[in-house]
Structures are given as C-alpha cells and as structure tokens.
Amino acid sequence: MVPLYLSFSCSLCLRLSSWVKGHAYLHGRDYTSAINAFRQLEETSVLSRNVDILATLGETYYLAGDAKNALSMLQRANAVDHLNLRGTDLLACLLAGEKRNRELEELAMAATSVTDSAPQPWIIMGYYCQLSKRTTKAIYFAHKACSINPRSVEGLLLKGTLLLELKKLQEAVMHFREAMQIAPHRFEPHKGLVDCYLAMHRSREAGNHCK
Predict the structure, then answer these.
(1) At CA 119, angle to CA 142 and CA 77, rounded to 5?
(2) Are 153 and 159 a contacting pair, CB within 8 Å?
(3) 1-58: per-residue pLDDT in tens?
(4) Measuring CA to CA, which residue among 92, 157, 102, 154 is closest to residue 127?
(5) Mind listing the domains of the chain with CATH numbers?
(6) pTM of the model as a whole
(7) How buried is residue 129: exposed, middle or buried, by Cβ count under 10 Å (0-12/13-18/19+)?
(8) How many other C-beta atoms can be found within 10 angstroms of the C-beta atom of residue 163?
(9) Cβ–Cβ under 8 Å, residues 79 and 91
(10) How far apart are CA 64 and CA 68, in angstroms?
(11) Left if phi > 0, otherwise alpha if psi is -120 to 50, otherwise beta: which for 18?
C-alpha cells in the first residue's frame, strides 16, 4: 500500500504540472493544449470550484474563439465568488455582445459593491451604458478604468470602440494602438484599427494592416 503522504505528494505534483503546462501553452498561444491542461485541473474534485482556474479557462476559451464556453466558465467563476473580479470585464464584454442587459446590470451592481479602485467595475458599467445607448456616460466609465490601470486591455478596447461609435476616429486609433502594443495577439485591437482606417477612407492603411 502506498503511504498517504506519498499519494498526496504525487497528486499535488500532477496538479502543479498541469498548471505549469497550461500556462506554458497559454503563453505560447497553443490554446487547445492550454484548455486541455486547465480542464484536467478543473475536473478534479478539489479544484472544480477554484476561481482562478475557472477564470483562466474562460479567458483561454475566449482567446481560442469559443465565446460560448468562455461565457460559461466566467459565469461559473463569478458565481463561486462575487468578490473576485478576475475575468468580470471580459464577462461583461460577452454579456453585452449577447445583449443580456439584465445580467449585465446585476454584474455591474455586484462589482461596484466590491471596490471602486479597480478597472473591472468601471468597464462593466461602461458596457452596461453602451448597451443602454448612453455612449457618453459609457466613455466616462471606460476612461475611469483606463486612468486606474492604463494597461487594461479591456478598458482600452471598450473606450476605442465607443470613440469609434462617436466618430472620434483619431482618438479611437490611439486607444486601439495602445491595446495592440500591450496585447498584440488579441484580434480586437487589429479589427478596431482597420475599422477606423476604413471610416477615415484610408483603405491602403487598412489593407496593409490586414497583411
């Protein structure tokens, strides 16, 4: 019979190995392998309700282009711990994309009750106002998020999108460029730049950016 402490140690090593592999795959943009590694962790009884793993899975699904599973995982992470804001800005983006106004409002109320010194609550409020057709107020909330964390990709993308809606194209370009510098692997800042160039009738630059 294997001693209990050895069994526990082996189990811990396997979980640590999956966690390291998952992040290595994620860093290498191998999202399918990253998802498989994190799912191995999430499917164990001990870690099935771990907020960090659920949020990481949600973010990885999103980067892999699987919005349905991304939404599901981020909702699970938020349900496990409403005080943990990890991934709630991305969750707001997904809810807004599906026009789920009521759930977005509830998420905003929960997040703002946690803190006002993190970018996520402001980003969530920004998406809620955008969905409610209050674009000017949405920009204020997006700007607030960016002032708290200038490297918030979700904040920069939201503000860039809102500025594009208001035809403030030069400002929108600036925000999409900043987001692209921070996260060049993300699709959204590239699309935002192309949309801006097309709106400015700069089709050559739009075409060059797509190459």
Answers:
(1) 120
(2) no
(3) 434 333 334 455 566 777 888 889 999 999 999 999 989 887 875 777 889 999 999 9
(4) 92
(5) 34-81 (1.25.40.10)
(6) 0.89
(7) buried
(8) 23
(9) no
(10) 11
(11) alpha
